[in-house]
Amino acid sequence: MKNFVEELKWRGMIHDITPGAEEELMKGMSSAYVGIDPTGDSLHIGHLVSIMILKHFQNCGHKPYALVGGATGMIGDPSMKSKERNLLDEETLEHNVSCIKAQLGRFLDFNSDAPNKAELVNNYDWMKDYTFINFTRDIGKLITVNYMMSKDSVRKRLSRDSSEGMSFTEFTYQLLQGYDFAYLYNNKNVKLQLGGADQWGNITTGTELIRRMYGGEAYALTCPLITKADGGKFGKTEKGNIWLDADRTSPYQFYQFWLNVSDDDAVKYIKIFTMLDRETIENAVAAHSECPERRELQKLLAKEITIMVHGEAEYENAVKASQMLFGKATAEDLKSLDERTFLAVFDGVPTFEVEKAKLPLGILDALAVETCVFPSKGEARKMIQGNGFSINKEKITDPNGTLNESHIIDGKYILAQKGKKDYYIIIVK
To answer: Which residues, in sequence order, are bridge partners of residue 394?
Structure first.
């Protein structure tokens, strides 16, 4: 078996680990789990570190469990939060759980006959019939309030200057998460919980419960919370989270996010977010340091993670789309883009509308009367004659030509380009 802890160490993916965990894992196939609260119907790249740790765990010959918190998701983890979450209804949670399972299937083997195939579990299954009286009698008496108050997630929340404080609902979260670990330990022989550094307190409450309930030994391993070299929040853009769902964040936008990370971040991220081996990564980092302006490390990072999340075809489309603004894209390349990718590539480009009934339309009228691509027909004529204007990536050389329905792509768009960098979209309605 591969040494799971050693694999994570060189990748910089261990923040804390309980004594004895590495030795336990080297005895043979073991089981571990990561908990995910289904507060949305898509994971985002903030979830990826924990998912990659599970992937490495399986790759090292161990059995991973992904716990989707259908029960705890109704409460919300107070760790690193300044406000209490909105509670979700059962129907919404069921929808979110099914979507998340589909996304996890891109990273973990759930379907083979291997003894270490992944399993998805939902804590709602063992919590839904557990009455409050029984829970407080069986579990509540085992962990003191003093113990719970000592956890960073609770102390930091209570020490903030806030009139809201923390509700009893949130305060009980660590008991519920601790019970999840105890349940999986007793029913699935899970001896290790994995998670982010902010989960250490919740995870160790689980190991303590296991000790008190069963006299057993269980372990915790947490990964660092990912940061950016410039101090900005990882996984956030001006438009919000980078999602794994292609309808929320297009594969092109996903690819661009990784392509545009800094050199320092690329060196760190390629270890964390890819399955490339140590020699390949060290060679890539060394080559990048000699010629960083080529951004080969970012390209490799973006390729590996885009293929893992969206597949080879979407990666190739993303590369093709990336060349649209800055490379040597052709008219055929442009027409091959789906509408989602087309709009993502040309996001923020000035747009104009033209009624379809007016087509065919003289090119000069189309560019300087019906739209404001050019301030005047004279300027439009001059640039066309100077070979500096294109429609849909094809040069327009005749100022007396027309704009017609054959120029429409995706049923409603025409792309106009002045020079090398100035783009305009004409929407035909």
So the answer is: 391
pTM for this predicted structure: 0.86
**Looking up tokens 């390949």, which residue turns up?**
280
Of how many residues is the chain composed?
A: 429
State residue 137's pLDDT score. Answer: 92
Q: Hey, what amino acid is at 291?
A: C
User: Which distant-in-sequence residues (6+ apart) come within 8 Å of 369 by Cβ?
Assistant: 377
CB atoms within 10 A of CB 43: 23
Residue 79's pLDDT is: 53
- Using DSSP's 3-state secondary structure scheme, residue 415 falls into strand
Instruction: Mark out the alpha helices in 11-151 (DSSP H runs).
Output: 21-25, 48-59, 90-104, 124-127, 132-138, 145-149
Alpha-carbon dihedral angle through residues 414, 418, 422, 426, given to the nearest 10 degrees: -20
Q: Mind telling me the catalytic residues?
A: 39, 44, 47, 81, 85, 177, 198, 233, 236-237
The count of C-alpha atoms lying within 13 angstroms of the C-alpha of 262, restricted to the half-sphere facing its C-beta, is 10
Phi/psi for 193 (5° steps) reads -115, 135
How far is the first Cα of the chain from the last one, in angstroms, to the nearest whole number?
A: 62
CA-to-CA separations, 115 to 118, 121, 194, in angstroms, rounded: 9, 17, 20
- Quickly tell me which residue has 């716990």 as its tokens: 67
Strands (DSSP E) found in 314-383: 351-354, 361-362
d(CA 349, CA 371): 14
Q: How far apart are CA 374 and CA 352, in angstroms?
A: 12
Cβ atoms of residues 198 and 80 within 8 Å: yes
Average pLDDT of the segment spanning 416-423: 91
How does strand 394-395 pair with strand 389-391? antiparallel
- Give the contacts of 380 (CB within 8 A, at least 6 positions apart): 363, 364, 367, 368, 373, 374, 389, 399
Point out the least confidently predicted range of 91-100, 242-251, 402-411. Answer: 91-100
* CA gap 192, 16 in Å, rounded: 13
> Is residue 277 over pLDDT 80?
yes
- Cα angle 327, 329, 335; round to 5: 145
Q: Say if CB 258 and CB 269 are below 8 A apart.
A: yes
Quick one: which of 44, 49, 42 has its CA closest to 269?
A: 49
Please say if the pLDDT value at position 166 is more than 90: no
